[in-house]
Amino acid sequence: MKIAAVDLGGTAVKGACLHDGNVLRRASAPTVATSRETVLRSLREVIDKLLPADAVALSSAGDIDPYRGVCTYATDNLPDFTGFALKRYLEETYGLPAEVINDGHAALLGEAAARALSQPTVMLTLGTGVGGAYFDGQQIVFGSDFRFGRFGHLPLYENGLPCNCGRQGCIETYVSGSALKRNAARLGLTVEQLFAADTGAAAAEVDRFCCDLAAALERVHEAAPYTLCILGGGVMRSSERWLPVLRKYTSRAVTTAVLGEDAGLQGAAQWWRERNK
Questions:
Q1: What is the spatial distance between Cα 106 and Cα 4, in angstroms, rounded to a whole number?
Q2: What does each of the 277 residues of the chain score in pLDDT, given as a tens digit?
Q3: At what angle do helices 200-223 and 177-186 cross, to 10 degrees?
Q4: How far is CA 236 from each of CA 75, 105, 116, 231, 256, rounded to the nearest angstrom?
Q5: How many CB atoms lie within 10 A of CB 241?
Q6: Beta-carbon neighbour count of residue 114 at 10 Å?
Q7: Angle at 84 between CA 266 and CA 79, to 5 degrees
Q8: Residues in contact with 191: Cβ distance below 8 Å, sequence separation at least 6, in sequence order
Q9: What Cα–Cα distance (Å) separates residue 166 from each residue in 72, 89, 160, 161, 178?
Q10: Alpha-carbon distances, residue 199 vs 193, 194, 202, 239 (angstroms)
Q11: Are 207 and 166 in contact (CB under 8 A)?
């Protein structure tokens, strides 16, 4: 069976046509997030390049009811997506069976399958925002409102920076790709230049990022006790530079995603298989 697996994020849409987990072809496009229709246009642009396929599996930002395939809540990263029936939209658009799951849940589901996990594990995906998920040793914990694992919106600092969820001090405002871009721009740098620096203000900014991430790991442990934390997402492209720094500030067992940036794609496909046994 060929599955068009797609990962919809606030910055990019990435997809792969998978056959038994193997990548047959890939496609990607920027997420044009000015309206729901522009986001959907970006999504269709990617899916169209993955066809023909037998099914569509979508990993999406936002709170997702994975059984109905409905986005129950989304920030302005995906405008007007709150309440949107993504599964029905995909099935009506392509005439194919579809499944939808939150991107953080998908990433950890993919990692759990790839690693044959049997221990309590959290995953943080550091991208435009911060996604998250919790595996209790046997299965992904969705929670009664399908929001469990939304660790990016746990409060990290009281009266902290404003978050696009409407609150202040959320983890996402300190350790996401968006936060890194903001802090690098303040120094007149790109994120790549920020991580390339060994001294000065840029190095101090990297050090602060790692301190914030270490604090976030403790905050997440309070909400969902774990023995292993997997880090994924686009920020991991620079992990060789900052992961050794992070380990100076935390004693938690931290590792990187074995599936890399394909974790969400593989997890979405895994969710489709579990739902259609």
A1: 14
A2: 999 999 999 889 999 999 998 999 999 999 999 999 999 999 999 999 999 999 999 999 989 999 999 999 998 889 999 999 999 999 999 999 999 999 989 999 999 999 999 999 999 989 888 989 999 999 999 999 998 998 999 999 999 999 988 999 999 999 999 999 999 999 999 999 999 988 899 999 999 999 999 999 999 999 999 999 999 988 999 999 999 999 999 999 999 999 988 999 999 999 999 999 8
A3: 150
A4: 23, 18, 22, 7, 8
A5: 16
A6: 17
A7: 90
A8: 177, 180, 181, 184, 238
A9: 16, 28, 12, 10, 16
A10: 12, 10, 7, 17
A11: no
Residue 61 near residue 74 (C-beta atoms within 8 A): yes
Q: What angle in degrees, to the nearest 10, is found between the helix axes of 263-275 and 103-115?
A: 80
Amino acid at residue number 6: V
Helices marked H in 96-199: 103-115, 172-175, 177-186, 191-196
Q: How far is CA 226 from the centre of its chain?
A: 19
Within 8 A by CB and 6+ apart from 89, the residues are 40
By the 10 Å C-beta count (0-12 exposed, 13-18 middle, 19+ buried), 158 is classed as: exposed
Structure tokens of 46?
A: 């990617």
Residues in the chain: 277
Output the pTM of the full model.
Answer: 0.88
Strands, sheet with 254-256, edge to edge from the N-terminal-most edge strand: 130-135, 121-126, 228-232, 254-256
